[in-house]
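Sequence of Glyceraldehyde-3-phosphate dehydrogenase (Marinomonas algarum).
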Amino acid sequence: MTSTWLQALSQAESMIPLLGKLGREKAVKVELAGNTLMADSVTGLMAAFDKHPELDLAQVYQVLEQVLASDLANTSVELEALIAEADLESMLSAQTSSDASGAQMPVVLYGFGRIGRLLARRMCTLGHTTPGMALAAIVVRKACDNDLTKRASLLKYDSVHGVYEGIVKVDEENQALIINGATVKVIYASDPAEVDYQAHGINNALLVDNTGRWRDHDGLSVHLNRPGIERVVLTAPGKEMRNIVFGVNDSDITSEDKIVSAASCTTNAIAPVLSVLESKYGIESGHVETVHAYTNDQNLIDNIHKGDRRGRAAGMNMVMTETGAAKAVSKAIPSLEGKLSGSAIRVPVINVSIAVLSLNLKSAASVEEINAAVKAASNSAELTGQIGYSDCADAVSSDFIGSSQAGIVDALSTKVRDNQAILYVWYDNEYGYSCQVVRLMEKLANASDVAAKQNESAAA
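Predicted 3D structure, token representation.
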């Protein structure tokens, strides 16, 4: 190893305690070009800093020390912006007085299936911070006598995403799971109208419905009308509500939006890429074909299903089906209204899908130009979490399991002829989407905190 590498390694190791304290004690998330700097992995830090050789790691350490010494709490900070600040101490002081309140919004996960468990993993990951919110409860139907033990096991062990690197314990006496030391109440209910969250000590909570059972405003309003719930997020496309793709149209959210949808995994994967192309070239029309991993909605063996083809054996067939993702994009990018069609093929892989974007652009382009535009967006603070960029010659679907980005453009597969472009976008339809949902949750939690402080100021 070179002395330069060993020096960088030593500096990264020294940052782990600082990042740990910032997350653990102050709920401050530190980001570098949109990527979270985690306190659990020196290798992860080295990989992050390797993309930014212009950074002076000694200076990074000093900045982290200053942030830790400040009163900043329950917020996210962008490392590059902090480094560029001429008077960091004054800036931190001003941000502390205007932004940080120390309050955390409780989060309730209604449903604990594939997405619910991954949301819990992401929120409770050692080294990761979710400013402004904390997981308080999970609502499920009781499935068996040892239900708590089963739920804990499903959270800890996952055939797709591996063993959860955290400590999960069962507290039968208090009907709770202990996840990395945090108590998460497990509430058993078969109907949302049965639950009084305030009776469990939960107030002003953000509820995330992972069941997909209710997708319209009236159905989800049952959650909102329960004691202790302030806001609701749906992890599926929704009707009569805003459908939000974080990084694309999350700025549209207002204080009046008490129920919002996080759209679908496919919409989250393609909308950021489409937003870049629409902005740079303009899109006349297009078709989106998603080759999608099979899901629990399908039958493992041929049987009756409300969707005819989804009733056929998922593990041995390519199954033609439908997707509303292409049309749903226009809810995030209104200028694409009526311009995109879409269809889907479910295939025998357990996770990771790929969307094929066949687009007619308003102006001619080249492969190099389009890839350069996408790569630039993938390195921007605004879209780093939403757009990934892969130029790996031997990439296959399993390489993208666990990707926290909404979608990853396979640059070597991009095709362009005049104004006709075809892009291939990989996405972890489980974890990548879950990370998008958590980003939306953070925004809602922080917005609620700001609104609460504004109300306090007005009352004073």
